[in-house]
Structures are given as C-alpha cells and as structure tokens.
Amino acid sequence: MARKKIALIGAGNIGGTLAHLAAQKELGDVVLFDIAEGIPQGKALDLSQCGPVEGFDAFITGTNDYKDIAGADVVIVTAGVPRKPGMSRDDLLGINLKVMKAVGEGIRDNCPDAFVICITNPLDAMVWALREFSGLPHNKVVGMAGVLDSARFSTFLAWEFGVSVRDVTSFVLGGHGDTMVPIVEYSTVKGIPVPDLIKMGRSTQERIDAIVKRTASGGGEIVGLLKTGSAFYAPAASAISMAESYLGDQKRILPCAAHLTGQYGVDGLYVGVPVMIGKDGVEQVIEIDLDEKAKAGLQVSIDAVKELLVACKGIDSSLA
Ligand code: APR
C-alpha cells in the first residue's frame, strides 16, 4: 500500500514540529510548504537527517510550490502571521484572510479529497474562511483548538490531584482561549467527576476555578514567557492526534472547531464542540445537554465567532 501523504502549510514553529511528529509516528511522507524560500527545504533536510537516528523512513520534503501537495491525504494549516504589537484585530484578520484564500485555493486545486485541519488564528473564523475558499465538504475541514485547550486543562488537573495525566479526561466547548467553556462536571479523574473530587476534599472550588482561568489564558501565559513566539509543541501534538484519528479511522471523540448545522442551536458557523473523527472526517457532532451556565458561556463564544465573520465578510466581499 502506498504511503499516505501529509501536507503541512506553514513551516514555522508549529509546522516544523508537526513534520517531526508525523515522521516519528510514520503517518506518511511529509511535504512542508511555505512562502518563505529555503525555510521548508532547510527544515525538511534537517528533519530527514533525524530518520537514521530515530529510525523512521518517512520522506520529508520542503517546497514553495502548491503543486507538490498534490494528492495529500491530510493537510494541516499553520500559515499566517501572529498578532504583533500595534496591530488591530482587523489588521490581523485582513492578513490571515488573504493567507487562507491562497491556501484554500491551493488545497482546492491540488488535493480536494484531503482532510484539512486548520490551526491559524483567529481559529474559529480562519477555519470557516478556509472552508469557504477551498470549497471542500464541511466534514473534511476542521479547526484545532479544543484538543489543545482540554490538554492544558487536563495537565493542570493532573498536577492538582497528583495523578497521571493518563487518568484525567477534561471537556471543553466553545472558542479558543478567552471564550473557552470548560465543562467541569464532565471532567474526570478515572471517571470520577471533578465536582465529586471537590466533595471528597481532594481540591476546592476556588482552586478549580483558578485552573479553569489559567487554562483559558494558557496560550497567553506561554507567549508571556517565550516573548518572541507562541506555543508550538502542544498545538502540534493536538493536531497530530486529529490526523491520526482520521487516517486510522479511530473514531475518537475530540473537541474540534466543527461546522454546525443546527446542533447547539447554531447554523452555518464553526464552533468548538465534541466530534467523532474517522475515515469520513467529522462523522458526528456529539450534542450534550448543557446547564444554563454552560449555555450562556457557549453563547458568548458563538457571538464572538459571529462578530468575527461579519468582520471577515467586510474585508473580503467574496465571503459575504
Ligand atoms: N503561505 C504559506 N505560508 C505562509 C504564508 C502563506 N501565505 N504566510 C505566512 N506563512 C508562513 C510563514 O512564513 C511562517 O513560516 O507561516 C509560518 C508561520 O510560522 P510561525 O510564525 O512560526 O507561527 P507558528 O508558531 O507556527 O504558528 C502558526 O498558528 O497558533 C497559530 O496564530 C498562530 O497563526 C499562527 C499559527
């Protein structure tokens, strides 16, 4: 059987880490694409030379030509620029929207059957725009945010309870970052819900509230420490788990920015919800009952996404 092909659009910090993980896990051959000349080629060469040491056979190549992503099975998009000091939200939107247009058209023309995972921020708007520009089916285009947010939440919960991260599951809905909606009732240690653990005296409501807050600003905490960039190891690992679920038809339930058609009262937007990912991409959106607090939190996320889409449509009239 021919090897799978993984195309990574953007060969920056996340793109390079994605390439390394995809090769180590032998998900397939890897093509790193970037507009910057030399960067994808240089990183591909460096990473290829890990092969003999780490024992992987995946071919890793770098390119500036969209034709080289032809026939890719999975595309992971990190192309774009981060928000810089002095840049307004609309400045950032304008720049990254243009990037999504070029990337979307590149995917449409070269690998329209791919499963596409978008990481570029502002995520919930960029994944929507990428889908619009590519014209791919909605179930084949998803955004990576919830896996990362819940990984952050799980990490802090494991530290709080002094248990293995493998025994923690956490549940988040909604947008990336500030508007994230952690569902504490569905977050557990080996099946024991966090509120029960509080009752058992293993933590306090105040400490869990602080963890929730830290999780929501988890990206900013890392930016504050790094000063010259944003998180890349965990974002890359999160997107790889989504790619693996698709390639292996694993049917994992993962929180992703997915296109909703009435679920959670939302129609036509990308919002972070739990979905099942298998060989057909997003195979199911899992709809759970929410209490009033969670509903209100999700509504804040939905309103924020709507506002971003209005701004996108104002910038690029082809999206209106
Ligand atoms: N096409 C392809 N690549 C592009 C384009 C484009 N039109 N525009 C920019 N790039 C490339 C840049 O050359 C750079 O190599 O995207 C890469 C982005 O890499 P980094 O700046 O290192 O960013 P990274 O940390 O990888 O994060 C990528 O994920 O977390 C989000 O919002 C964040 O948008 C950012 C993205």
UniProtKB/TrEMBL annotation:
Gene Ontology BP annotations: carboxylic acid metabolic process; tricarboxylic acid cycle
GO molecular function, one term: L-malate dehydrogenase (NAD+) activity
Residues given in the record as substrate binding sites: R83, R89, N121, R152
Protein name: Malate dehydrogenase
EC top class named in words: oxidoreductase
Gene that encodes it: mdh
The EC number(s) this enzyme carries: 1.1.1.37
UniProt-listed InterPro entries: L-lactate/malate_DH, Lactate/malate_DH_C, Lactate/malate_DH_N, Lactate_DH/Glyco_Ohase_4_C, Malate_DH_type3, NAD(P)-bd_dom_sf
Active site per the UniProt annotation: H176
Catalysed reactions, as listed in the record: (S)-malate + NAD(+) = oxaloacetate + NADH + H(+)
Annotated GO CC locations: cytoplasm
Task of the protein: Catalyzes the reversible oxidation of malate to oxaloacetate.
Protein source organism: Novosphingobium malaysiense
Keywords: NAD, Oxidoreductase, Tricarboxylic acid cycle
SUPFAM superfamilies noted in UniProt: LDH C-terminal domain-like, NAD(P)-binding Rossmann-fold domains
Family (UniProt): Belongs to the LDH/MDH superfamily. MDH type 1 family.
Signal sequence, start to end: none
